[in-house]
Design goal:
It catalyses: shikimate + ATP = 3-phosphoshikimate + ADP + H(+). 53% of the residues lie in helices and 12% in strands. With 181 residues, it is α/β, with parallel strands linked by helices. It has one domain: 3-Layer(aba) Sandwich (Rossmann fold). The structure holds adenosine-5'-diphosphate (ADP) and shikimate-3-phosphate.
Length: 181
Amino acid sequence: MNSLLQGVNLYLIGMMGSGKSTVGRLLAKHLGYGFVDTDDVIVQAAGKSINQLFAESGEAAFRQLESDVLAQVCAFTKLTIATGGGIVTRQENWSYLHHGLIVWLDAPVELLYSRLQEDTTRPLLKDVDPLGKLRSLLEQRQPLYSQADLQITISAEETPEDIANRVIAAIPSVLKKTVSH
Ligand SMILES: Nc1ncnc2c1ncn2[C@@H]1O[C@H](COP(=O)(O)OP(=O)(O)O)[C@@H](O)[C@H]1O
Ligand SMILES: O=C(O)C1=C[C@@H](OP(=O)(O)O)[C@@H](O)[C@H](O)C1
């Protein structure tokens, strides 16, 4: 385990497609941590896909489930947690996120779009203009994502392993900052 983190959870935030689940799994392995994807927990608990939940119960109901899952996950330590892209939009979620170290995977919308073009599992992208939708979501959420402890700006050339290594390398500097505040 990364002794500097001392079991503190790592929360990955960022837009859909930024790589939270992919990089999160690698980070968990590197840190000797468990891995949780809040979307997966919601799907398992509800017995429905995210698309079904949005269609049948609406986004507000999904957001409530998301907050419930986050609250439960926070009770554990030694976890890397890939959150859903919209988790930052509820103020109450921030008190949970701040239990751990918050890492923002910041990827350009064009890269998100290229990764999610063929994807049918993100209900918010079922839009006549999915690229425009990604742009407007990022514009709304950027001030929220920027409240993360650590911002990792991602380029198209980087592999998930490169990004995970960069997060690990940056952790000591963030911990120092947190202590000196
Ligand atoms: N660094 C990367 N390079 C290439 N493809 C990636 C990278 N990170 C993620 N992907 C791909 O992009 C898509 C979205 O990644 P995912 O981890 O599900 O993002 P998120 O959890 O943030 O929505 C997946 O198909 C994944 O394989
Ligand atoms: O950005 C969002 O509001 C959402 C992102 C998705 O998670 P990922 O960021 O893991 O794709 C999922 O929670 C849902 O489709 C809503």
